[in-house]
Amino acid sequence: MSGRTRPRPAAAGGPRAWARDLAMGMRFAAGGGREGWTRTLLTALGVGLGVTLLLAAASLPTLLENRTVRREAVAPAETERPVPPSPRTLVQAPLETAFRSEPVRGQLLRPDGARPPLPPGVTALPGPDQMVLSPALRKLLHSPEGALLRPRLPFKDVGTIGPAGLVGPGDLAYYAGSATLTPENGGHRIRAFGVTRAPEPLDAKLLAVLIVGCVVLLMPVALFIATAVRFGGERRDRRLAALRLIGADARMTRRTAAGEALFGALCGLLVGTVLFLVGRQFADRITFWDIIAFPSDVTPVPWLAALVAAAVPLAAVAVTLLALRRVGIEPLGVVRSGGGRRRRLWWRLPFPAAGIALLLLNGGIEGSRSTAGPFLIGGGAALFLLGVALLLPWAVDATVSRLSGGPVPWQLAVRRLQLSGGTAARAVSGITVAVAGAIALQLLFSAIQSDYLKVTGQDSSRAQLQSTLPSHDIGTIRKTISAFRETEGVRGVIATIEASASRPGPLRKGETFAPSTQVTVGDCATLRELARTGPCKDGDVFVVKDAGGQVEGSYIDETARPGATVDFAFHDGPDGAGKRPRLWTVPRSARTVESRKDPMGQDSFGLFATPGALDPALLEEPMARAMIQLAPGVLDAVEHARNTAAGISPLMSVRALRDTVRDGQYTSVRTGLGVAAGATLALIAASMLVTMVEQLRERRRLLSVLVAFGTRRATLAWSVLWQTAVPVVLGLALALSGGLALGLALLRMAGTAGLDWSVVWPLPAAGAALIAVVTLLSLPPLWRMMRPEGLRTE
Amino acid sequence: MTPEGSLLAAEGLRKAYGPTPALDGADFSIHPGEVVAVMGPSGSGKSTLLHCLAGIIRPDSGTVRYGPHTLTDLSDTHRSALRRTDFGFVFQFGQLVPELTCLENVALPLRLNATRRKAAEHRARDWLERLEVDDVAAKRPGEISGGQGQRVAVARALAPQPRVVFADEPTGALDSLNGERVLTLLTDAARDTSAAVVLVTHEARVAAYADREIVVRDGRVKDMAGRI
Ligand SMILES: Nc1ncnc2c1ncn2[C@@H]1O[C@H](COP(=O)(O)OP(=O)(O)OP(=O)(O)O)[C@@H](O)[C@H]1O
Ligand SMILES: [Mg+2]
After folding, report:
1. What pLDDT, in 10s, does the model give residues A327-342?
2. What is the H or E stretch that residue A55 is in?
């Protein structure tokens, strides 16, 4: 191929020779006719898919960061001391509710003057009874199901919150104007919006999980890219043989091949970038694990993007050179050394061994907090998984070389695997690594999950919702309680009106204030939820002692005594001394009982009275709490209850009782990994399908010849199935053992023992299912290729 | 054109790929044990004719009769079964399964016909000997020469003792010496087993091996000369 007249020196391997041969390869790839283009296109598409995924992964930090920044920007600024009113202040109160499981974030605002601070994304404050809202909330309100939410937002829609004021496009948020809100009736005066919270350092165990997760998810992508640059390799090798015939030496052809791969990889980068840019336009239309993102948030971290751009072409060249090591391109054809040279174990084993060693060397998981820690964990896991990927071709080789005999399909499959087990192993290496990684990750996750689950003490089987009434007016309280009782889907309301009672009369020696206790008024059904009342009828009074015995009983004894007189008025304040006492005598018939944890998990004690015994109007500044029991099976009962609350006061919130809550960081790590796993799995399936079809395509002519012979389609289909099944079984076995080894090493690091098999089994099963689906999908192309047209190709 | 006693006979075959016809009313017949050379310029429709005759593709119209069967009416499954049991094939190149040894390649059609492995390989060895390539029995197709490969292919076509052998330019990729040797072996062996041979070729000298020659031109068959 050289234009020179003198033969090139044999050792030409300098940068110039490299550049020349790579360039020649790229020219071949670009101008290789239809065949060449098909190959380049396949590679570009494959690499492109991988690159898209890598860029998406590289955007995750930006996405999370931007969401956090905006979430903090809309929160009312925190101040140490109360802010005095000025033209630059406003009074604010949160209006929190939720629709089904989606939180709806609202704020009630009343400006103090002409130049109030504006929340981000809002150009003008809404006037009284007006609101500005997010597009997603407007859409929800206008939808049929939004009818359940509309009563809670009885404001006039006067504008839209811009993206700067929203965490994401799916955010349900609004700001409503008020004419009456003051700090006295539930508001909070602020000068500005926005808080800055020091970022919470990620928990060490979660950091380890996150790092391993990234490695696990990105390894298959890397493997896929490596596979994609080898698409159509056999044909290319034959083409390169022609090059040898006209005088290229072995090294030149190898570099030329690398050049072709480089071209494909560069095209792939381009395709990937375009796919990514186009794809992110749809980010605000796709919900991925509850996250909908603004397209502008899906921006790769620059250095990560640069890393992708540099690593992909480099990897393409390296992979090609490595792959051609085993292939002798001779002037008269391609000699695959598969038959002669066995794959060796000795250089493969050190990879997983080194990986495990790195992990164990790292010591405890707390080490991941140090600067080197994350790199050690990530590097260790990556090395180990790479080792698994490297062991697979060896395992396939070692196994199939012992197989023989059997019926024709089996024989065809086994012989093919013996000759080119590497190709088959490559096809399943992605899933092997993914399953191994997933097993390790699941083990770690299940071992640490209890650390991140907090038991709240609430009992959601006894009551499902709770609400605190923001009014001390006994009339309003009564109205609210009966409104809840009449709400559709509400079975019962555990409603208490609470205040405090103290011993009347002057202070005794040594006392700084009068002993006091809590007074709780509720009907018998309510009191039964709070204390072991035994028989109860209206008019009864109980003295309740703390069952846990944690609260000192003497105060209760001094005030809540049958026959004792108590005073409900407060005398602590500056004007307390002159206040008229509100006296009441505890009936002598009052029984002493023990307290019981209420559905919120709290203990109440002191004086419990039914309304027939104590008129709550006598209490000073009574507080009311309601725990609501819903009738099972009534759809949207929660929404009706929330509407009832909003009808009484927009500031009244209704919260669901939860038995346990997950740590926020844990949840977001889990969510992030879930999102990524879905994407990786889709990629693996796609890559397997492409690889399988590609392998079939290279054998199109042979398939046609076999069909001409009268070979049954079933025979060929079975041989393809066997050919897939053998590496798959080996791959999954390897994945299982590798995953367990890696998982146990990680568990040791995390300082948790205990192997939970139940989380392990589903993964190889899922892998096998995925492969079965892909294999079935590859049958139609196989059918199509078993046509006589194939006799003509070449 | 369909004389009495013919083994395989075709009438009025038409096959078009898009607007241009590849076969345009071709007739053909062959007797048991007869060797017919099919000649003609490139693109005239020889391969298409052969594929129709062998039931690999279905013509757009016309019939192919083989003994009591009307091939053109049979289902794909039936035609496949016939190809397995009664027909043998030799193509120009790339027909040996690369991962099987030559011996296994020859045994393959026998095994597709449910012959046991041992017996199939035994018979395959006989045929390799007969075609003078028993020394490559254990090698893979990638490790042997083109001429050896074609001989293995011929052995494979003849091993199940087919009634008709279809050969599409079996020597196209060989030098003339090798080519002639392969053709001699093919026709001799076919005559020994009284198999009919449909031999598509460009080579003029091939006439020496054939009982009859026909020429395909623009999708039609012209009889060149009578029998020898
Ligand atoms: N599968 C196909 N798709 C489209 N066109 C086809 C197909 N098979 C054959 N043809 C066309 O039909 C015509 C006859 O083709 P055929 O292969 O039978 O010719 P041939 O005589 O065997 O030529 P050669 O001597 O070059 O092998 C040609 O014009 C060819 O282009
Ligand atoms: Mg032809």
Report:
1. 666 665 665 544 455 6
2. helix A33-74
Instruction: Domains for chain B: give ranges and CATH numbers.
Output: 1-86+163-186+194-228 (3.40.50.300), 98-161 (no CATH)
Distance of CA A345 to the CA centre of its chain: 38
- Residue among B24, B47, B202 to mutate when testing ligand 1 (max atoms within 8 A of CB): B47
Highest mean pLDDT range out of A337-351, A425-439, A731-745? Answer: A731-745
- For residue B227, count other CB atoms closer than 10 A to its CB: 9
Q: Compute the distance between CA of residue A54 and CA of residue B7 in angstroms, rounded to an integer.
A: 64
B142 touches chain A (CB under 8 A): yes
- The runs of H, that is alpha helices, within chain B are 46-53, 76-85, 102-112, 117-130, 146-158, 176-192
Kindly give the residue spans of alpha helices, DSSP state H, lying in A126-249. 135-142, 204-228, 233-245
Please give the radius of gyration of chain B, using alpha carbons only, rounded to the nearest integer: 17
**H helices present in A293-407, as ranges:** 302-324, 350-361, 373-400
Which residue type, as a one-letter code, is found at position A382?
A: A
Q: Given A416, A707, A715, which is nearest B99 (Cβ)? A: A416
pTM of the model: 0.70
Query: What is the tens place of the pLDDT at every residue in A188-232?
Result: 898 888 888 777 777 777 777 778 888 887 888 788 777 777 776
In terms of pLDDT, which residue wins out, B192 or A100? B192
Q: What digits encode the pLDDT tens for the residues A625-684?
A: 888 888 887 778 888 888 888 788 777 778 887 877 777 777 777 777 776 777 777 777
Confidence grade of residue A774 (pLDDT, cut at 50, 70, 90): confident
pLDDT at position B137: 92
Query: Are A709 and B54 in contact (CB < 8 Å)?
Result: no
Tokens of residue B104, six digits: 């296994």
Q: Name which of A674, A672, A660, A658 is nearest A202 in CA terms.
A: A672
> Residue A333: its chain B contacts at CB < 8 A?
142
Ramachandran class of A118: left when φ > 0, alpha when ψ lies in -120 to 50, beta otherwise = beta
Atom 25 (ligand 1): residue with closest C-alpha?
B42
Chain A residues contacting B, CB < 8 Å? 333, 335-336, 339, 405, 408, 411-412, 415-416, 418-420, 701-702, 705-713, 715, 788, 791-792, 794
Name A175's bridge partners: A107, A132
- Range with top average pLDDT, A198-212, A226-240, A428-442: A428-442
Domain coordinates in residue numbering, chain A: 1-75+205-337, 76-190, 465-658
Query: Which ligand 1 atom is at minimum distance from the Cα of B15?
Result: 12
Give the whole-angstrom CA distance, residue A266 versus residue A284.
29
- Mean pLDDT value across residues B133-159: 89
Interface contact flag, B80 A416, Cβ < 8 Å: no
Helix (H) or strand (E) holding A642: helix A637-648
Locate the chain A residue with the closest alpha carbon to B81. Answer: A710
Kind of pairing between the strands at B8-17 and A490-502: unpaired
Percent of chain A with pLDDT over 70: 88
Q: Residues B178, B132: contact at Cβ < 8 Å?
A: no
3-state secondary structure A71-123: HHHHCECCCCCCCCCCCCCEEEEEEEEEECCEEEEEEEEEECCCCCCCCCCCC
What number of other Cβ atoms are within 10 A of residue A188's Cβ? 18
Residues of chain A with C-beta less than 8 angstroms from the C-beta of B102 = none
Q: What is the mean pLDDT of chain B?
A: 87
Q: How many CB atoms lie within 10 A of CB A319?
A: 21
- The answer to whether the CB of B49 falls within 8 A of the CB of B216 is yes
Q: Is A793 close to ligand 1, i.e. is its CB under 6 Å away? A: no
Looking only at the bridges linking them, the beta strands covering A660-662 and A453-455 are antiparallel
Q: A792 CB under 6 A from ligand 1?
A: yes
Q: Is the pLDDT of residue B228 over 50?
A: no
Amino acid at A406: G
